[in-house]
Amino acid sequence: MQRLRRLRRSAAMRDLVAETQVRTGALIYPIFVIDGENIREEVPSMPGVYRYSVDRLEEIVDEMLACKIGGTMLFGVPAHKDDLGSEAYAEDGVVQRAIRRIKQLCAQKREALLVIADICLCEYTSHGHCGVLCGGDVDNDASLPLHAKAALAAVRAGADMVAPSSMMDGVVAAIREALDESGFAATPIMGYSAKFASVFYSPFRDAADSAPQTGDRRGYQMDFRNGREALRELAADEAEGADILMVKPALAYLDVIHAARAQTKLPLAVYNVSGEYAMVKAAARAGMLDEKRVVTELLTAFFRAGADVVITYHALDWAHWQQEHSEK
């Protein structure tokens, strides 16, 4: 008789044969950067997550460096918005200033932190959509040059990687061409390759002030009923030159993550999004769940499904828990 339980008899035995490990260095922590001064304000729908002005970034940079997480992804909350999202590609835009500040702080501390710039227009447009509006619809091809300009502005400011998130057809190719022609052929692109139109983004839209003023994004983000189409999107980004692919959200799309892992040899990222984070926080605060155990189980599930990188608001909590465990 097989005795599969033999390898589960003790914590040491279980650790010995564990197939999946959560690596702190494979976690990316998102930051919301807001125009203004001396701002550190909590996002009401995301307990423990804050919006920082550029002059307050040092405290969160210090924490990320101490936690030794893999890096950060930046999202801007500008004071000015217009139809073309011009702050997304302005040299002195809030994210560009934040990138320069983080790189300056890291240089002063003689430490390194990977900085990824999210590339989209929704936080910067007055209408809240991810591209140029034409007749009430997003004009895909007219939007591509603006995404390329935003990517160039971020890289010139010092970003280590750019991550186009708008789900515009051809956006990875447009950015790759612009980077290559401007002398940034070595800068990688992380494509938001299979990004589904999801209600799980709601707290993020509060944090980034990026909700569409009219309509929704189902005309360009993916239908959550479609798994095979996600594989086509992943393949398209790979063909256009993406260096890392992504599935977003993570929790309700483990099947897509697993299928993506089987399809591609590229590194695969997943985004554990704001609504997934908020659900865990709410349940934990209500005493319904053990937060540490739930987060551990979820992060493990993402890596087990095939992720190499996890973008998550839980990153710093997880890192602190690991440090506490190692000190005991």
Polypeptide structure, described:
The chain is an alpha/beta fold and 328 residues long. It has one domain: TIM Barrel (Alpha-Beta Barrel), CATH 3.20.20.70. It has helices at residues 11-16, 57-67, 94-109, 140-157, 171-181, 202-208, 228-240, 254-263, 274-285, 291-305, 315-327; strands spanning 27-34, 40-42, 50-52, 71-77, 114-119, 132-134, 137-139, 161-164, 194-195, 245-248, 268-272, 309-312. The strands form two sheets. Strands 1, 2, 3, 4, 5, 8, 9, 10, 11 and 12 form a ten-stranded mixed β-sheet that branches. The mean pLDDT is 94.
The H-level CATH homologous superfamily, spelled out, is Aldolase class I
The name of the CATH topology is TIM Barrel
Measure the end-to-end span: 39 Å
Q: What's the helical proportion of residues? A: 40-55%
Please give the number of β-strands: 12
Specify the CATH architecture: Alpha-Beta Barrel
Q: Whole-number radius of gyration? A: 20 Å
Task: Quickly count the helices.
Answer: 11
Kindly name the structural category.
alpha/beta
Proportion of residues in β-strands: 15-25%
What's the CATH class, please?
Answer: Alpha Beta
Summarize the structure in short.
With about 325 residues, this protein is an alpha/beta fold. The protein has helices at about 10-15, 55-65, 95-110, 140-155, 170-180, 200-210, 230-240, 255-265, 275-285, 290-305, 315-325; strands at about 25-35, 40, 50, 70-75, 115-120, 130-135, 135-140, 160-165, 195, 245-250, 270, 310. It has a single domain, classed as TIM Barrel (Alpha-Beta Barrel), CATH 3.20.20.70.
